[in-house]
UniProtKB/TrEMBL annotation:
PANTHER family linked: BINDING OXIDOREDUCTASE, PUTATIVE (AFU_ORTHOLOGUE AFUA_1G17690)-RELATED, FAD-BINDING PCMH-TYPE DOMAIN-CONTAINING PROTEIN
Protein name: Glucooligosaccharide oxidase
Domain FAD-binding PCMH-type: 56-228
Keywords from the named record: FAD, Flavoprotein, Oxidoreductase, Signal
One Gene Ontology molecular-function label: oxidoreductase activity
Entry similarity comment: Belongs to the oxygen-dependent FAD-linked oxidoreductase family.
Superkingdom to which the source organism belongs: Eukaryota
Sequence intervals crossing the membrane: none
Signal sequence extent: 1-20
InterPro entries associated with the record: BBE, FAD-bd_PCMH, FAD-bd_PCMH-like_sf, FAD-bd_PCMH_sub2, FAD-linked_Oxidoreductase, Oxid_FAD_bind_N
Any Pfam family the entry gives: BBE
Entries under Gene3D superfamilies matching the protein: 3.30.465.10, 3.40.462.20
SUPFAM superfamilies given in the database record: FAD-binding/transporter-associated domain-like
């Protein structure tokens, strides 16, 4: 046998032996603490370790299911003893399987058993467990007459959503989900359980509102909630447009957003989907309006009057929860049906309000979608979410107040392409196709155009992700990471990197 082959086989044996030894010792430790966990030889392991994005195959060493902060602490300490990377999983919707560690051999802290929701009848503040999904949070808060700004994908977990951003149609009115975090109970890498708030562990409080999973496991979150508006509207309009008409329509939408005429009660997005013929796209305009029902039409008229008659029009007016339900992607009560999976690639681009998109950039993008997109077999769409406008609560938060580094955004683009049947394998051509959606924009903007990327639409192929996701906050995050997690226990492919000293 050749020496190189023998050495390789020896290394495989050593890794396998150490992994098995780690698993045995970890299983004993968790059993002593009375903590349920699944390991690779358990029948339920395969289903439990399946990522949301089936493009990934990740095998964690174990998946633990704590029910209290104290049990989370025990899991973390056990992981440190075994020299394992430890990761949190809230709803499990990470685009790149970060909730499973991103690579094999991690210890997953699955938070699905921590689903408490309590609302203080006096302050309206809510304590929410990180295992709750957005639909269930919305229903529970609504029962108390309260609401939060959050996304419309109901099966997304509140832990990751609030830890990295949390945009929804109420965000122009109430901010990002993380802007409503008053405090968090966090388990650190040394096993200590601390409170992070404006007055306690202030640096950690700053960090968990923008990059929480790199610094600890969040065991519970205290939110400022809001009285739900008395009426709410859900709307969705669609058109079939040729590329020039669709790009011009988007520029009209941008002009409206910059005009200062959009009230904070309005939240919306533009969608681009495959058209019915080459050279066409489907153009969608959808969202929620939380102002008086009788002012909805006058609110959208400055933009709507510039468009041809829509092909489809759906407007639902009613209560807050009825409007959320009408526009939701998934059941609001997530216990009635299992979560789904997809096989996809997605990117993001956060366009600054100070330098609006040019006609050339939008013409290039929409032409690309109408031509290259029409010929693609992928199931694709592009969301363009409205963040800005003069009255947006998102951009009124000071840049240094949270680790979320995007306080001057006008739009967030999310290009997203699934395999034709939503199952593996993902076609190699899909990566270049989605990359092209971003490059058609950036190559037609000034060379010094500073765009960002949204951390909840995480992309492990993104170059210079540190700057795109975190901007100038990244150095500050690295300093804190080195302080509170010196062994890099909370590690995944896009976790905050420690400072390296020589």
């Amino acid at each position: 046998m050749r020496p190189a082959i023998a050495l390789a086989l020896l290394m495989v044996f050593i890794v396998s032996f150490c992994s098995a030894q780690n698993a045995t010792e970890l299983k004993e430790q968790l059993a002593m603490e009375g903590i349920m966990a699944l390991f690779r030889d358990d029948a339920e392991y395969t289903a439990a370790s399946q990522p949301y994005n089936l493009r990934y195959i990740v095998e964690p060493l174990a998946i633990a299911y704590p029910t209290t902060a104290e049990q989370i602490s025990s899991v973390v300490v056990a992981g440190v003893i075994q020299k394992l990377h430890v990761v949190a999983r809230s709803g499990g919707h990470s685009y790149i399987a970060n909730g499973l560690g991103g690579t094999n051999g991690s210890l997953v802290v699955d938070l699905s058993q921590m689903k408490n929701i309590t609302v203080d009848a006096v302050t309206g503040n809510a304590i929410i467990g990180p295992g709750n999904r957005l639909g269930d949070v919305a229903l529970a808060l609504n029962n108390a007459g309260r609401g939060l700004p959050h996304g419309r994908c109901t099966y997304v977990g509140i832990g990751g959503h609030s830890g990295f951003g949390g945009w929804g149609f109420a965000s122009r009115m109430w901010g990002m989900t993380l802007d409503n975090v008053l405090s968090a109970t966090v388990v650190l890498a040394n096993g200590s359980i601390v409170t992070a708030s404006e007055n306690l562990n202030e640096a950690l409080y700053w960090a968990v509102r923008g990059s929480s999973a790199s610094f600890g496991i969040v065991a519970s979150i205290e939110f400022r909630t809001h009285a739900v508006p008395p009426t709410a509207t859900a709307f969705e309009f669609t058109w079939q447009m040729d590329a020039p008409t669709a790009s011009a329509a988007f520029i009209e939408f941008q002009s409206w957003a910059l005009s200062g005429d959009i009230p904070p009660e309005f939240g919306g997005e533009i969608g681009f989907l495959k058209g019915q013929a080459y050279g066409q796209v489907e153009f969608a305009f959808l969202g929620n309006y939380f102002g008086p029902a009788d002012s909805f039409n006058s609110t959208i008229t400055p933009f709507f009057s510039k468009l041809p008659a829509p092909v489809t029009a759906n407007v639902t007016q009613g209560t807050w929860i009825e409007a959320l339900t009408a526009i939701a992607a998934g059941n609001m009560n997530t216990t009635t049906q299992p979560d789904s999976n997809d096989t996809f690639y997605a990117k993001s681009l956060m366009a600054p309000q100070a330098v609006p998109l040019t006609n050339a950039s939008m013409t290039a993008l929409v032409t690309y979608l109408a031509e290259v997109g029409f010929n693609s077999s992928d199931f694709w769409h592009v969301e363009v979410e409205l963040y800005g406008g003069n009255q947006s609560a998102i951009n009124q938060v000071k840049f240094n107040d949270t680790a979320f580094a995007h306080r001057d955004t006008l739009f967030t683009f999310q290009p997203y392409a699934s395999s034709p049947n939503l199952l593996p394998p993902y076609p190699d051509s899909g990566f270049g196709f989605v990359d092209g959606m971003i490059s058609t924009l950036t190559l037609n903007m000034p060379s010094d155009w500073e765009w960002g990327a949204y951390p909840n639409y995480i992309d492990d192929r993104l170059q210079d992700w540190q700057r795109r996701y975190y901007g100038s906050h990244y150095d500050r995050l690295r300093v804190l990471k080195s302080s509170v997690d010196p062994l890099d226990t909370f590690h995944f492919p896009t976790s905050i990197e420690e400072l390296v000293s020589f």
